User: Fold NUDIX hydrolase from Sphingomonas naasensis.
Amino acid sequence: MTDEAFLRDYDPSAFARPSVTVDLVLLGMHDGQLAALLMRRDQPPQAGCWALPGGFVGIDESLDAAALRLLRDKAGMDDAHLEQLYSFGAVDRDPRMRVITIAYLALLRADQMAAAIRSGRVTAAALAGDPVSARSPDGASLPLAFDHAQILTRARDRLRGKIDYSDIAFALLPARFTLRALQDVHEAVLGVPLNKPGFRRRMLDRGRLIATGTREADASHRPAELFRLNDGD
Amino acid sequence: MTDEAFLRDYDPSAFARPSVTVDLVLLGMHDGQLAALLMRRDQPPQAGCWALPGGFVGIDESLDAAALRLLRDKAGMDDAHLEQLYSFGAVDRDPRMRVITIAYLALLRADQMAAAIRSGRVTAAALAGDPVSARSPDGASLPLAFDHAQILTRARDRLRGKIDYSDIAFALLPARFTLRALQDVHEAVLGVPLNKPGFRRRMLDRGRLIATGTREADASHRPAELFRLNDGD
DNA sequence: TAAATAGTGTCTTTTAGACATTATAAG
DNA sequence: CTTATAATGTCTAAAAGACACTATTTA
Assistant:
């Protein structure tokens, strides 16, 4: 890249620049299904459609910092798993102006999901299908704004691709969890039922799960043992 | 995101916006090693350092279109494997101004590498280590500009992560290739030697390789059979 | 004691690593 | 006939799917 190109870009009005935003895909388990937290648009364009929480990237703010700020402002938390997902830059993705968005994937525990929903700023929508579509808890289909179906599909696919060899499933669970709950997460993300003994053995053979010796409390049947992740090494 | 935020952003001088560029990581095999194509900076800042080819994203140009344009302009080709890699947006990554770059990974065949080098616009640099460092063919270490070592490391890691389950290795090979050449690509990318019979069986059992019946020509020993990829299904 | 889920044992198939052996070309 | 590499066979170990079975809690 030549310095002349940079220099002429020093004058912000000489050449039009795209706006840059960060959008958050907040994913977690809700009612036993994989769900995203969405905001309802009440202004045109696309009023009535459901959108990802997002905002502009500040001129003195890194992309990661912008994602963290939005996580606090839109979902009211600051300790979720957060990773950059993909950048979307189709020319007409927003009818108002040229906007390039860097999408981030945030993984929430059930208690974080519940707290964000209680705050009233976001609503949970179950995700299914390919490409992904969103459904409200009562089963109604929720229309998605802009290219957000595409973004949600890529987020779901990222989760599917990484769940077998990474620790991301645990970001969707409390610190102590049963093997059944862990299997429920895997099945919801992958969209297929899994073999129980095989799943159990695969998880335990990995050597990362530590039995706590305590058991779940509220079950109306034999209670399962609670495990925690050994994130020390 | 509120419409007020969008509206105030309609005036480009009201709020400073970052510049947006696309940088290309052009990877291929060179002298039996994994190598990137770099440009030497002859102007400050970082004069004498080696940088990825890149350029601004046009206001009416998608990210993918900008990457394709740069592939043509900087490497003189338009049929390489091209995929978005990651976006880099640290506030001080470029000392001149705030620049967010969307990095793309391009995979080149040996003949494309050679043609780009002959054009004189880029130079091949072998990649090794973690984080990646660059070396010229004569063994000299090449200092990398800005955050480009970080970008190259992420490109190399993407290649490593996908080579076992995707077709990207074939993007680095001509249409017809020997199993030894395919193994050389895997070994260069992964940085470890592989077992020959096991590698051969794994590739053939996948059912994607088609024996052509012809053999390599220039060998001074028993010539190996040439295969091609079945990219039909 | 019935119901429901937790948890285990075992068989089989698949996959992959290691290593020895045979085959075929050039010089 | 020597040398170098191609190509194959076989043994073994680890991983994963399927399924039957036992164990333990609540109601």
Residues 195, 197-198, 201-202, 205, 215, 219-223 of chain B lie near DNA strand C (CB under 10 Å from a C1'). The first helix of chain B runs from residue 3 to 10. Chain B has a mean pLDDT of 92. The two ends of chain B are 43 Å apart (CA to CA).
